[in-house]
Amino acid sequence: xxxxxxxxxxxxxxxxxxxxxxxxxxxxxxxxxxxxxxxxxxxxxxxxxxxxxxxxxxxxxxxxxxxxxxxxxxxxxxxxxxxxxxxxxxxxxxxxxxxxxxxxxxxxxxxxxxxxxxxxxxxxxxxxxxxxxxxxxxxxxxxxxxxxxxxxxxxxxxxxxxxxxxxxxxxxxxxxxxxxxxxxxxxxxxxxxxxxxxxxxxxxxxxxxxxxxxxxxxxxxxxxxxxxxxxxxxxxxxxxxxxxxxxxxxxxxxxxxxxxx
Length: 261
Fold this sequence. Notes:
Distance between the termini: 47 Å
Strand order of the largest sheet: 2-3-1-4-5
Largest sheet: 5 strands, parallel
Low-confidence stretches: 215-223
Shape: globular
Structural class: alpha/beta
CATH superfamily of the largest domain: P-loop containing nucleotide triphosphate hydrolases
Order of helices and strands: EHEHHEEHHHHHEHHHHHHH
Number of helices: 15
Strand content: 5-15%
CATH architecture of the largest domain: 3-Layer(aba) Sandwich
């Protein structure tokens, strides 16, 4: 629909930051903002995936959607697709699942501790395979709706097959956001009908050092780098090579280098 925007991303790809950006930009642009992260929005994951009627009655900006949704007349929307290296996504999922994200049981207890004890290499390979459904709970991984959205390789394939390269789709990457927020923002902001975009970009870019501090670790002393390439520090070379094969098409399409170690 002309003027409507939908922002697709993935779990563990700074989606909460994307939420904040889209809420701000929508307010400035005068767009109604619809987000599963807004209390009372009614946009839970299953409804987004199954209720096709909602897309005809709601107008504005929809974000962040963390999996592909076959929206009716999607070609009429301005689409932003924000993606991250799948190897780093999987590493972040491990720390979220075992230690950081809140959920039905406390971090590092019960089955969450069992997963941690099996190790990060076992986790990422399972999450990138048919074993993905063996993990209980969600904890920021999308596990509670994998029956609808599939495992991580399928989520990337859906985006590659259905969105990448389409004329109404703007592709941006997490890595570019961290390395050069201003350049990333210039692309991200383009679909929003905002006057004097240059001035707004200047104002937001001035906050980059606060938005992306140079830090080596974060919550709970579990090292989890914000900068790209964390998988090279956390995973065994044999694990990385297996992931490179699983995500070969995704890495090539999105411009990520295979492991050279």
